[in-house]
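Colleagues,

For the teaching module next term, I've prepared a clean inverse folding example: a structure given as tokens, and then the sequence designed for it. I'd like students to try predicting residues themselves before seeing the answer, so please don't circulate the second half yet.
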């Protein structure tokens, strides 16, 4: 796919990586606008194409009492409002066939969660909306197997597909990133993203709350740029410790500026390596 296919995406000719960033879940309008304001300002300064991400609903939860959302329509309207206010493309997860058409009325990119990347009917429904589809590689999937997930979208008449590496299960409570997966998935002719926050999850904790290693986000991101990834995915929050979802592996918003500056420098070097 071409980045230019995504509506409202800026700086696509800057030769930089693109960034998908935002809160794990839409919690309220104020937090969404605070994050969008901060990240957009940084990305405009550094000429980074930026897509705002926020899940309107969290369906994959460890416990019944885990936060799932503020209401589907309410959250989707906040995403739509962010997109309009900042002239940004927006991204959200979908979990069911019905979600595809509903979410497509509000956002620009539909994201398929890792655990659902093999769900044929869901991929076809997302494809038929005509929106760009970002498929996260399952923790249990090889890079080569993701070609078939991509094909389900393209063979349904939609060639606007991204694949996202988000780590591979390593034991019961850890993930590991295999950077060979980036060129392997790029070889299918698609656009590849590296999820720098979910790759650091520590699932299956006894508390029923997923842990994480946010101090390693910079390491994962820098290695991804050096490996030639097209885009990065980061979940950010003003106060991760009080976030309602995935706070244990999100980046604190105030730390983003230094990381993006360093990543842009690495990307500049990589652009000049033959």
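(Answer key — instructors only)
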């Amino acid at each position: 796919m071409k980045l230019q296919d995504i509506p409202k995406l800026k700086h696509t000719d800057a030769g930089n990586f693109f960034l998908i960033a935002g809160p794990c879940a839409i919690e309220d309008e104020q937090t969404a606008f605070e994050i969008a304001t901060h990240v957009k300002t940084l990305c405009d300064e550094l000429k980074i194409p930026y897509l705002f991400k926020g899940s309107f609903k969290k369906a994959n939860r460890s416990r019944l009492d885990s936060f799932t959302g503020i209401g589907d329509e309410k959250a989707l309207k906040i995403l739509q409002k962010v997109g309009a206010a900042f002239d940004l493309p927006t991204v959200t997860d979908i979990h069911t066939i019905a979600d595809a058409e509903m979410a497509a009325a509000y956002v620009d990119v539909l994201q398929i969660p890792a655990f659902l990347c093999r769900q044929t009917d869901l991929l076809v429904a997302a494809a038929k909306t005509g929106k760009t589809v970002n498929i996260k590689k399952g923790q249990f999937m090889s890079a080569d197997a993701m070609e078939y997930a991509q094909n389900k979208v393209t063979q349904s008449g939609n060639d606007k597909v991204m694949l996202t590496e988000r780590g591979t299960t390593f034991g019961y409570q850890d993930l590991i990133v295999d950077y060979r997966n980036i060129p392997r998935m790029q070889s299918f002719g698609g656009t590849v993203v590296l999820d720098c926050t979910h790759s650091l999850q520590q699932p299956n904790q006894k508390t029923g709350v997923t842990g994480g290693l946010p101090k390693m986000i910079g390491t994962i991101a820098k290695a991804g740029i050096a490996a030639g990834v097209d885009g990065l995915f980061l979940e950010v929050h003003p106060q991760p410790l009080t976030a309602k979802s995935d706070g244990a592996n999100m980046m604190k918003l105030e730390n983003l500026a230094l990381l993006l500056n360093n990543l842009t420098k690495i990307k500049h070097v990589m652009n000049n390596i033959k």
